[in-house]
Amino acid sequence: MRVWMVVATLLLVVAGCASPSTTTGSPEPAAPTGTIAPTGRPTPIEPTAPIEPTAPIVPIVPAPAGTPAGGVPSPAGSGRAGARKAEVRPGRPAGNLPAPRPARRIDCERVKCVALTFDDGPGAYTESLLDMLARHRNRATFFVVGQMVPGKGESILRRMVAEGHELGNHSWNHPELPGLSEVGIREQLNRTQWIVKRATGVTMDLIRPPYGATDARVAAESRHLGLAQIMWDVDTLDWRDRDSSLVARRAAEATPGSIVLMHDIHLSTVQAVPRLLHHFAARGYRLVTLSELYGRRLLSGRKYPRDSGF
Protein backbone atom coordinates (compact mmCIF):
# COMPACT_ATOMS: atom_id res chain seq x y z
CA MET A 1 0.00 0.00 0.00
CA ARG A 2 2.80 2.39 0.95
CA VAL A 3 4.56 1.69 -2.35
CA TRP A 4 1.36 2.43 -4.27
CA MET A 5 0.97 5.81 -2.50
CA VAL A 6 4.57 6.77 -3.33
CA VAL A 7 4.00 5.91 -7.02
CA ALA A 8 0.79 7.94 -7.13
CA THR A 9 2.53 10.92 -5.56
CA LEU A 10 5.35 10.76 -8.12
CA LEU A 11 2.81 10.66 -11.00
CA LEU A 12 1.06 13.74 -9.68
CA VAL A 13 4.36 15.65 -9.44
CA VAL A 14 5.28 14.70 -13.01
CA ALA A 15 1.87 15.79 -14.31
CA GLY A 16 2.18 19.16 -12.56
CA CYS A 17 5.53 19.81 -14.17
CA ALA A 18 4.09 19.08 -17.62
CA SER A 19 1.16 21.54 -17.23
CA PRO A 20 1.38 25.00 -18.95
CA SER A 21 2.97 27.65 -16.83
CA THR A 22 1.03 30.72 -15.82
CA THR A 23 1.81 33.87 -17.87
CA THR A 24 3.30 36.57 -15.73
CA GLY A 25 3.63 39.29 -18.43
CA SER A 26 1.13 42.05 -19.11
CA PRO A 27 -1.93 41.09 -21.18
CA GLU A 28 -2.12 42.31 -24.80
CA PRO A 29 -3.70 45.75 -25.04
CA ALA A 30 -7.33 45.75 -26.12
CA ALA A 31 -8.05 46.76 -29.72
CA PRO A 32 -8.89 50.44 -30.06
CA THR A 33 -12.58 51.22 -30.20
CA GLY A 34 -12.28 53.97 -32.78
CA THR A 35 -9.92 55.53 -35.28
CA ILE A 36 -8.02 58.56 -34.06
CA ALA A 37 -7.47 61.46 -36.43
CA PRO A 38 -4.15 63.30 -36.57
CA THR A 39 -5.67 65.98 -34.36
CA GLY A 40 -6.03 63.47 -31.52
CA ARG A 41 -9.82 63.53 -31.70
CA PRO A 42 -12.06 60.69 -32.89
CA THR A 43 -12.55 60.62 -36.64
CA PRO A 44 -15.91 62.26 -37.44
CA ILE A 45 -18.76 59.86 -38.13
CA GLU A 46 -20.92 60.50 -41.13
CA PRO A 47 -24.17 61.99 -39.86
CA THR A 48 -27.40 60.18 -40.69
CA ALA A 49 -29.72 62.91 -39.44
CA PRO A 50 -29.69 66.70 -39.25
CA ILE A 51 -27.20 67.93 -36.67
CA GLU A 52 -28.09 70.93 -34.60
CA PRO A 53 -25.70 73.88 -34.41
CA THR A 54 -24.70 72.81 -30.89
CA ALA A 55 -23.12 69.54 -32.11
CA PRO A 56 -19.32 69.17 -31.78
CA ILE A 57 -17.21 70.88 -34.43
CA VAL A 58 -15.72 68.57 -37.03
CA PRO A 59 -11.95 68.89 -36.64
CA ILE A 60 -10.07 70.16 -39.68
CA VAL A 61 -6.38 69.42 -39.95
CA PRO A 62 -4.37 72.65 -40.30
CA ALA A 63 -2.90 73.16 -43.75
CA PRO A 64 0.88 72.98 -44.20
CA ALA A 65 2.75 76.24 -44.53
CA GLY A 66 2.28 77.74 -47.96
CA THR A 67 -1.08 76.06 -48.63
CA PRO A 68 -3.54 78.49 -50.31
CA ALA A 69 -6.50 79.72 -48.28
CA GLY A 70 -9.31 77.20 -48.37
CA GLY A 71 -6.93 74.31 -49.07
CA VAL A 72 -7.44 72.63 -45.70
CA PRO A 73 -7.41 68.84 -45.98
CA SER A 74 -10.24 66.79 -44.54
CA PRO A 75 -9.79 64.62 -41.43
CA ALA A 76 -7.92 61.38 -42.07
CA GLY A 77 -9.86 58.16 -42.24
CA SER A 78 -9.56 54.58 -43.36
CA GLY A 79 -10.83 52.55 -46.31
CA ARG A 80 -12.64 54.38 -49.09
CA ALA A 81 -13.09 57.55 -47.02
CA GLY A 82 -9.36 57.66 -46.33
CA ALA A 83 -8.57 57.54 -50.04
CA ARG A 84 -10.49 60.79 -50.47
CA LYS A 85 -8.36 62.95 -48.24
CA ALA A 86 -5.98 64.01 -51.03
CA GLU A 87 -6.75 67.13 -52.99
CA VAL A 88 -8.14 66.17 -56.39
CA ARG A 89 -6.58 67.91 -59.36
CA PRO A 90 -7.90 67.93 -62.93
CA GLY A 91 -7.02 64.63 -64.63
CA ARG A 92 -5.86 62.97 -61.40
CA PRO A 93 -8.87 61.56 -59.52
CA ALA A 94 -8.32 59.91 -56.13
CA GLY A 95 -10.03 56.55 -55.78
CA ASN A 96 -13.53 56.73 -57.23
CA LEU A 97 -13.68 60.52 -57.24
CA PRO A 98 -14.13 62.47 -60.47
CA ALA A 99 -11.49 64.66 -62.04
CA PRO A 100 -13.01 68.16 -61.98
CA ARG A 101 -13.36 69.80 -65.35
CA PRO A 102 -11.38 73.05 -65.47
CA ALA A 103 -13.13 76.36 -65.95
CA ARG A 104 -13.64 77.22 -69.60
CA ARG A 105 -11.78 80.17 -71.05
CA ILE A 106 -14.65 82.57 -71.58
CA ASP A 107 -14.04 86.30 -71.56
CA CYS A 108 -17.19 87.56 -69.88
CA GLU A 109 -16.01 91.13 -70.46
CA ARG A 110 -16.68 90.56 -74.15
CA VAL A 111 -19.22 87.71 -74.12
CA LYS A 112 -22.71 88.03 -72.61
CA CYS A 113 -22.49 85.79 -69.53
CA VAL A 114 -25.05 84.91 -66.87
CA ALA A 115 -24.47 82.73 -63.81
CA LEU A 116 -27.38 80.52 -62.77
CA THR A 117 -27.03 79.56 -59.10
CA PHE A 118 -29.06 76.96 -57.23
CA ASP A 119 -29.33 76.79 -53.44
CA ASP A 120 -30.43 74.28 -50.77
CA GLY A 121 -29.71 71.00 -52.56
CA PRO A 122 -28.93 68.47 -53.65
CA GLY A 123 -32.56 67.41 -53.73
CA ALA A 124 -35.03 65.10 -55.43
CA TYR A 125 -35.08 67.14 -58.68
CA THR A 126 -31.38 67.97 -58.96
CA GLU A 127 -30.53 65.09 -61.28
CA SER A 128 -33.24 66.15 -63.74
CA LEU A 129 -31.79 69.65 -63.66
CA LEU A 130 -28.33 68.27 -64.40
CA ASP A 131 -29.75 66.36 -67.37
CA MET A 132 -31.16 69.60 -68.78
CA LEU A 133 -27.91 71.49 -68.32
CA ALA A 134 -25.93 68.65 -69.90
CA ARG A 135 -28.13 68.57 -73.01
CA HIS A 136 -27.48 72.28 -73.58
CA ARG A 137 -23.82 72.10 -72.48
CA ASN A 138 -24.41 74.73 -69.84
CA ARG A 139 -22.82 75.04 -66.42
CA ALA A 140 -24.13 76.39 -63.13
CA THR A 141 -23.08 76.88 -59.51
CA PHE A 142 -24.68 74.85 -56.72
CA PHE A 143 -24.63 76.09 -53.13
CA VAL A 144 -24.82 72.93 -51.05
CA VAL A 145 -26.53 72.39 -47.70
CA GLY A 146 -24.32 69.92 -45.83
CA GLN A 147 -27.04 67.79 -44.29
CA MET A 148 -28.41 67.08 -47.79
CA VAL A 149 -25.20 65.35 -48.87
CA PRO A 150 -25.06 61.95 -47.06
CA GLY A 151 -26.34 59.07 -49.17
CA LYS A 152 -27.66 59.84 -52.64
CA GLY A 153 -26.38 63.41 -52.45
CA GLU A 154 -22.77 62.23 -52.61
CA SER A 155 -23.16 60.72 -56.08
CA ILE A 156 -25.05 63.80 -57.27
CA LEU A 157 -22.21 66.06 -56.15
CA ARG A 158 -19.66 63.83 -57.86
CA ARG A 159 -21.64 64.12 -61.07
CA MET A 160 -21.72 67.93 -60.73
CA VAL A 161 -17.94 68.00 -60.41
CA ALA A 162 -17.44 65.63 -63.36
CA GLU A 163 -19.69 67.78 -65.58
CA GLY A 164 -17.94 71.04 -64.79
CA HIS A 165 -20.37 72.67 -62.38
CA GLU A 166 -19.14 74.64 -59.38
CA LEU A 167 -19.89 73.88 -55.73
CA GLY A 168 -20.34 76.41 -52.93
CA ASN A 169 -20.98 76.25 -49.19
CA HIS A 170 -24.55 77.02 -48.03
CA SER A 171 -24.09 76.02 -44.35
CA TRP A 172 -24.95 72.72 -42.67
CA ASN A 173 -28.67 73.14 -41.99
CA HIS A 174 -29.54 76.64 -43.25
CA PRO A 175 -29.70 78.89 -40.17
CA GLU A 176 -29.27 82.66 -40.20
CA LEU A 177 -25.56 82.74 -39.50
CA PRO A 178 -25.45 86.18 -37.79
CA GLY A 179 -27.76 84.77 -35.12
CA LEU A 180 -25.18 82.15 -34.10
CA SER A 181 -22.08 82.41 -31.95
CA GLU A 182 -18.69 82.44 -33.63
CA VAL A 183 -18.33 78.76 -32.74
CA GLY A 184 -21.74 78.06 -34.28
CA ILE A 185 -20.85 79.87 -37.51
CA ARG A 186 -17.56 78.02 -37.73
CA GLU A 187 -19.29 74.69 -37.18
CA GLN A 188 -21.87 75.34 -39.91
CA LEU A 189 -19.16 76.12 -42.45
CA ASN A 190 -16.61 73.52 -41.33
CA ARG A 191 -19.06 70.62 -41.44
CA THR A 192 -20.19 71.44 -44.95
CA GLN A 193 -16.63 71.98 -46.19
CA TRP A 194 -15.65 68.61 -44.74
CA ILE A 195 -18.53 66.52 -46.07
CA VAL A 196 -18.27 67.97 -49.60
CA LYS A 197 -14.50 67.43 -49.61
CA ARG A 198 -14.96 63.85 -48.47
CA ALA A 199 -17.64 63.14 -51.08
CA THR A 200 -15.95 64.82 -54.07
CA GLY A 201 -12.35 65.70 -53.25
CA VAL A 202 -13.18 69.36 -53.91
CA THR A 203 -12.38 72.16 -51.46
CA MET A 204 -15.03 74.82 -52.00
CA ASP A 205 -13.97 78.47 -52.10
CA LEU A 206 -17.41 80.10 -52.30
CA ILE A 207 -20.14 80.58 -49.72
CA ARG A 208 -23.67 81.88 -49.96
CA PRO A 209 -24.89 82.70 -46.46
CA PRO A 210 -28.46 81.43 -45.99
CA TYR A 211 -31.01 84.17 -46.69
CA GLY A 212 -28.09 86.38 -47.75
CA ALA A 213 -27.66 87.20 -44.05
CA THR A 214 -24.10 88.12 -43.16
CA ASP A 215 -22.10 90.34 -40.83
CA ALA A 216 -18.50 90.98 -39.81
CA ARG A 217 -18.27 87.66 -37.91
CA VAL A 218 -19.58 85.67 -40.89
CA ALA A 219 -17.09 87.49 -43.11
CA ALA A 220 -14.26 86.67 -40.70
CA GLU A 221 -15.09 82.95 -40.57
CA SER A 222 -15.49 82.90 -44.35
CA ARG A 223 -12.11 84.54 -44.74
CA HIS A 224 -10.55 82.00 -42.36
CA LEU A 225 -11.78 79.14 -44.58
CA GLY A 226 -10.89 80.87 -47.84
CA LEU A 227 -14.51 81.45 -48.86
CA ALA A 228 -15.74 84.43 -50.89
CA GLN A 229 -19.32 85.47 -50.08
CA ILE A 230 -21.64 85.29 -53.10
CA MET A 231 -24.95 87.16 -53.25
CA TRP A 232 -27.14 87.79 -56.33
CA ASP A 233 -28.74 90.55 -58.37
CA VAL A 234 -31.70 88.64 -59.86
CA ASP A 235 -34.04 86.98 -57.35
CA THR A 236 -36.64 84.68 -58.89
CA LEU A 237 -38.50 84.30 -55.57
CA ASP A 238 -39.04 80.70 -56.59
CA TRP A 239 -39.24 79.60 -52.94
CA ARG A 240 -42.36 81.72 -52.54
CA ASP A 241 -44.04 81.53 -55.95
CA ARG A 242 -44.09 77.92 -57.13
CA ASP A 243 -45.04 78.90 -60.67
CA SER A 244 -42.57 77.82 -63.37
CA SER A 245 -43.74 80.48 -65.87
CA LEU A 246 -43.31 83.25 -63.33
CA VAL A 247 -39.90 81.95 -62.25
CA ALA A 248 -38.74 81.79 -65.87
CA ARG A 249 -39.91 85.36 -66.57
CA ARG A 250 -38.07 86.72 -63.56
CA ALA A 251 -34.86 84.86 -64.38
CA ALA A 252 -35.07 86.10 -67.98
CA GLU A 253 -34.61 89.66 -66.68
CA ALA A 254 -30.91 88.89 -66.18
CA THR A 255 -28.43 91.08 -68.03
CA PRO A 256 -24.76 90.42 -68.85
CA GLY A 257 -22.91 89.72 -65.60
CA SER A 258 -26.03 88.83 -63.61
CA ILE A 259 -26.12 86.23 -60.84
CA VAL A 260 -29.53 84.54 -60.74
CA LEU A 261 -30.84 83.02 -57.50
CA MET A 262 -32.91 79.81 -57.69
CA HIS A 263 -33.43 76.64 -55.63
CA ASP A 264 -33.12 73.16 -57.10
CA ILE A 265 -35.24 71.63 -54.31
CA HIS A 266 -38.44 72.96 -55.95
CA LEU A 267 -40.01 71.07 -58.87
CA SER A 268 -41.49 74.28 -60.31
CA THR A 269 -38.01 75.79 -60.50
CA VAL A 270 -36.57 72.82 -62.38
CA GLN A 271 -39.57 72.91 -64.72
CA ALA A 272 -38.73 76.54 -65.53
CA VAL A 273 -35.16 75.78 -66.59
CA PRO A 274 -35.74 74.46 -70.17
CA ARG A 275 -37.53 77.68 -71.09
CA LEU A 276 -34.67 79.68 -69.57
CA LEU A 277 -31.98 77.76 -71.44
CA HIS A 278 -33.72 78.39 -74.77
CA HIS A 279 -34.27 82.06 -73.87
CA PHE A 280 -30.61 82.74 -73.14
CA ALA A 281 -29.33 80.67 -76.07
CA ALA A 282 -31.57 82.57 -78.51
CA ARG A 283 -30.09 85.85 -77.28
CA GLY A 284 -26.47 84.76 -77.50
CA TYR A 285 -25.80 84.39 -73.76
CA ARG A 286 -23.38 81.93 -72.20
CA LEU A 287 -24.47 80.28 -68.94
CA VAL A 288 -21.36 79.99 -66.79
CA THR A 289 -20.13 79.17 -63.31
CA LEU A 290 -19.22 81.97 -60.94
CA SER A 291 -15.51 81.34 -61.41
CA GLU A 292 -15.99 81.64 -65.17
CA LEU A 293 -18.10 84.78 -64.72
CA TYR A 294 -15.45 86.60 -62.69
CA GLY A 295 -12.46 85.04 -64.45
CA ARG A 296 -10.27 85.25 -61.36
CA ARG A 297 -10.00 83.94 -57.83
CA LEU A 298 -12.25 85.99 -55.56
CA LEU A 299 -11.02 87.45 -52.29
CA SER A 300 -11.88 85.39 -49.21
CA GLY A 301 -14.47 86.96 -46.93
CA ARG A 302 -15.40 89.68 -49.42
CA LYS A 303 -18.97 89.98 -50.68
CA TYR A 304 -19.82 89.72 -54.40
CA PRO A 305 -21.38 91.53 -56.18
CA ARG A 306 -19.72 94.34 -54.21
CA ASP A 307 -22.76 96.60 -54.58
CA SER A 308 -25.30 94.01 -53.44
CA GLY A 309 -27.59 95.39 -50.75
CA PHE A 310 -27.52 92.33 -48.52
Integer average pLDDT: 78
Helix content: 25-40%
Distance N to C terminus: 108 Å
Instruction: Please identify the structural class as seen in this structure.
Output: alpha/beta
Spans where pLDDT lies below 50 across 5 or more residues: 12-94
Which descriptors would you attach to this protein?
310 residues, alpha/beta, six-stranded parallel β-sheet, three-stranded parallel β-sheet, 9 helices, 11% strand
Q: How is this structure best described in words?
A:
With 310 residues, this protein is of the alpha/beta class. Helix content is 32%, strand content 11%. The chain has nine helices and nine strands. The strands form two sheets. Strands 1, 2, 3, 6, 7 and 8 form a six-stranded parallel beta sheet that branches. It has a three-stranded parallel beta sheet with strand order 4-5-9, with helices on one face. Helix 6 links the parallel strand 4 (206-207) and strand 5.
Give a quick summary of the entry:
This protein has helices at residues 2-18, 79-82, 126-135, 152-162, 182-200, 216-224, 244-251, 267-282, 290-294, and strands spanning 113-121, 141-144, 166-169, 206-207, 228-230, 234-235, 259-263, 286-287, 303-304. The chain has 310 residues and is of the alpha/beta class.
